[in-house]
Design goal:
The chain has 19 helices and six strands. By secondary structure, the protein is mostly helical.
Length: about 425
């Protein structure tokens, strides 16, 4: 039935990308995983004296005692079960797909540069210090750690941008499925989407509790510029005004559409109804902001696993050419896909190369690995890590940075007809 006919007989449309059940569980409902983390963190804040270190409970398995801390329940459960495997999914979708090498060979090779960006940024101040030391100029610790701080701030901001861009992709797919277009509608959607998801970040950076949040560095917004006025004092109320204004205007716009007899896009609105408040809550408290990355990323991970597996199932089983045998095998069924993703995670964080580094360097890599993961997730301050832990973390973030870069190239639905074909949009 044409879009115009459907609009004439339905007041609220629910276009689905896959199916009602799959969309509600994996796309729209995926944000509920973030809300589950919110509930765990709120419970820890209310019940524990030190939520960042104290355990909610201790599980005893024979002689092994496992402390259920927020770092375990939130950071490790997210990072090891969902996040690292979703990075692997991008590599499988590109490195093992012959079509991608034909179309994007240059981009694939360029993507490996991201493994060097972090270590170079971190080590450059130390190299500079080694050159200035013989001249009698000893660089202070703050200067030596500047490269690490700058790199990891950039990493976190790109991670957030990456998540928001995927949300825009799904938002746009629901618009596309419903034929939800029009100059006024597109303009209002664009402004609402960006203001509702980026203003909480600005509010957090300018908030009175930003400097009290562990793991975040002073970026100078609190420094007075005119009298007692600082950039934070200006940005904080302005961001709140834009945020609340965008929410109220969008609700009023939807009400106006309804009163005018137009159909509302129920899938699009349901999608944003779970995501928008989650991003606000994630920035609303110092302890909550510590776990910002898992909170806003876990739903993104679930969405990504579903969309890449759906894409693969629509494409690879039909490609019987010899060169597709590896990628066809990787996506043979869900259990193979899940097993290989978890194996990649274990190899990355617990593989033979970890044992080699432990033996070769003498590091306490168990502690270093946990500190590195905690920093990546926002739990630890980069400046508090040792130089080895910073470089180690930067090497691991290379996989994530490569993923962000490749992801920006391979999912251009509006321009790539193959993506449209295999996503069936």
């Amino acid at each position: 039935m044409p879009v115009a006919e459907r609009i004439s007989v339905q007041r609220i449309l629910f276009p689905w990308i896959l199916s009602p059940q799959k969309d509600l569980v994996f796309y729209i409902g995926s944000a509920l995983a973030g809300w589950l983390y919110v509930a765990i963190i709120v419970y820890a804040i209310v019940t524990l004296e030190n939520p960042l270190k104290d355990a909610l409970a201790v599980v005893r398995l024979g002689q092994v005692h496992i402390a259920l801390t927020l770092q375990l329940l939130v950071v490790l459960s997210w990072g090891l079960i969902l996040d690292a495997p979703h990075v692997w999914a991008t590599l499988a979708r590109t490195l093992f797909d012959p079509d991608e090498w034909k179309v994007r060979r240059r981009e694939i090779w360029v993507s490996f540069i991201w493994f060097f960006v972090g270590p170079v940024a971190i080590l450059s101040p130390y190299l500079l210090g080694s050159l200035t030391a013989p001249l009698g100029l000893i660089l202070p610790a703050a200067v030596l750690s500047f490269g690490a701080v700058a790199y990891f701030v950039f990493f976190r901001l790109w991670a957030y941008y990456h998540v928001v861009r995927q949300h825009w992709g799904f938002f746009s797919l629901y618009k596309r499925k419903a034929g939800d277009y029009g100059s006024h509608v597109d303009c209002v959607d664009w402004w609402f989407f960006n203001l509702s998801l980026y203003m909480p970040l600005v509010m957090f950076l300018a908030s009175p509790f930003y400097l009290k949040t562990p793991g975040y560095v002073d970026i100078g917004l609190m420094v007075p510029i005119v009298g007692e006025w600082s950039l934070a004092a200006i940005l904080y109320p302005l961001a709140w005004t834009l945020y609340l204004g965008a929410i109220l205007f969008y609700l009023g716009f939807q009400l106006r559409l309804w009163l005018d007899g137009s159909a509302l896009n129920g899938s699009k609105l349901s999608y944003m109804a779970l995501i928008v408040p989650l991003h606000l809550v994630a920035y609303s408290h110092p302890i909550m902001a510590v776990f910002l990355v898992p909170l806003v990323t876990v739903g993104h991970n679930i969405q990504y696993h579903c969309i890449i597996y759906s894409y693969a199932q629509n494409k690879y089983p039909a490609r019987m050419e010899k060169e597709f045998r590896w990628v066809r095998g990787l996506f043979r069924n869900f259990w193979v896909y899940a097993f290989v993703g978890l194996a990649f995670t274990l190899i990355l964080y617990r593989g033979p190369w970890i044992d080699f580094l432990k033996h070769f360097t003498g590091w306490r890599l168990d502690k270093s690995l946990l500190n590195s993961l905690a920093m990546m997730a926002g739990v630890a301050d980069p400046a508090s890590l040792s130089l080895g832990e910073k470089v180690f973390a930067a090497c691991i973030t290379g996989f994530a940075m490569q993923h962000y870069y490749l992801d920006s190239k391979i999912w251009r639905v509006s321009k790539d007809k193959n993506v449209q074909k295999y996503l069936k949009v």
